[in-house]
Specification:
It is globular and about 75 Å long. It has 15 helices and two strands. The chain is mostly helical.
């Protein structure tokens, strides 16, 4: 993915439109046959996909076990609330820090690897996390997971907001979503983001010009897991539970499909498109058939075969298509005919 080297707008127009659409959802979401919780779920998955795309789309590092960090955020949030201190800010910050710390630890082992070995190690670590969540009954609750996770109020000292309703939780998540989206936009257009892009384009050349490739790969993985942890904590808050399937290989595969089908490899907006498309397809197709994933998989296969750059890439190609030039009109014959 080539990053623009010119002046980068502080808040690009597509981001402003996305936030305005989300802000206005209570006004129209019911009229189109959807419900507020679906919008909340889409936003959480978009957050997860944005974090994942920092790794795959911008640094070129495939992780097929990233669902483990989404689940770690959910479990960390639940455990901190149920066993340490039921305070929203403490639990959220703790979930992000715990997930980022585990991500940093995993990245220590895998950042020296490339290609298929890197990807296989992410799967192996993901399975280890899933196994621990399943078998460590005294801490994680085993197959039942953690139940009765509460939607704690957002307390600012002088004022407190009740987040027990879906609408209130939606707007709380929207504020965090906007902050992460803006932070991600600034990050990928910063010098650090350009180094990530350089590693993606040619890791050997990046090392040759003096960049510590291992360190930047470690940093990209850690930042990506921190965002996944935040998304997982919000998911646990929305679902009021955390269970092993949250960190399963299925979720790891889903986020890869979201990023690829949306066009995350070529566009910053790809994860937003892909996650929205996936959740809507699951909800709308799932209302008609239990085999919705089969149809979605066929669409995904078609995209990979014929439009591997995804929906955003197809849109970019359509915009860049050569314009047809209308043939010049022949000059009118002079009155009276040729002399």
């Amino acid at each position: 993915m080539q990053l623009a080297t010119g002046r980068v707008p502080l808040i690009p127009l597509p981001m402003l439109v996305t936030l305005l659409v989300l802000l206005s959802t209570p006004l129209w979401v019911g009229r189109v046959g959807l419900y507020q919780y679906l919008a909340l779920e889409i936003m959480i998955w978009v957050l997860f996909a944005m974090g994942y795309n920092l790794l795959l789309g911008f640094t070129g590092l495939p992780s097929f076990g990233h669902g483990a960090f989404f689940g770690t955020g959910a479990y960390a949030f639940g455990l901190l609330q149920l066993k340490v201190w039921p305070n929203l800010w403490f639990d959220l910050a703790g979930a992000v820090l715990v997930t980022a710390a585990l991500g940093a630890l995993v990245a220590l082992f895998i950042s020296h690897r490339r290609g298929i070995y890197y990807a296989l190690l992410t799967i192996a670590f993901g399975q280890v996390f899933w196994f621990i969540a399943n078998k460590w009954h005294t801490v994680t609750g085993g197959e039942d997971g953690l139940l009765n996770i509460k939607r704690l109020p957002a307390d600012f000292g002088f004022v407190s907001f009740n987040l027990s309703g879906n609408n209130a939780l939606f707007f709380f998540c929207l504020v965090l979503f906007a902050l992460v989206l803006l932070g991600m936009w600034r990050l990928i257009h910063s010098p650090l983001g350009r180094i990530f892009s350089a590693i993606k384009q040619n890791e050997t050349r990046a090392a040759f010009v003096g960049y510590n490739v291992w360190l930047y790969k470690w940093l990209a993985f850690t930042l990506s897991t921190a965002v996944a942890g935040l998304a997982g904590a919000l998911f646990a808050m929305a679902q009021q539970s955390a269970y092993p399937n949250v960190m399963s290989l299925h979720n790891s595969g889903f986020v890869v499909m979201m990023v690829l089908i949306g066009g995350g490899l070529v566009s910053f907006w790809g994860p937003i498109i892909g996650a929205t498309f996936f959740i809507l397809a699951r909800d709308l197709l799932g209302a008609y058939t239990e085999t919705w994933l089969l149809w979605y998989g066929l669409v995904f296969m078609a995209m990979v075969l014929f439009k591997p750059e995804g929906i955003a890439g197809a849109w970019q190609a359509w915009k860049a298509r050569p314009k047809r030039v209308a043939p010049a009109k022949s000059a009118p014959a002079p009155a009276g005919g040729a002399l």
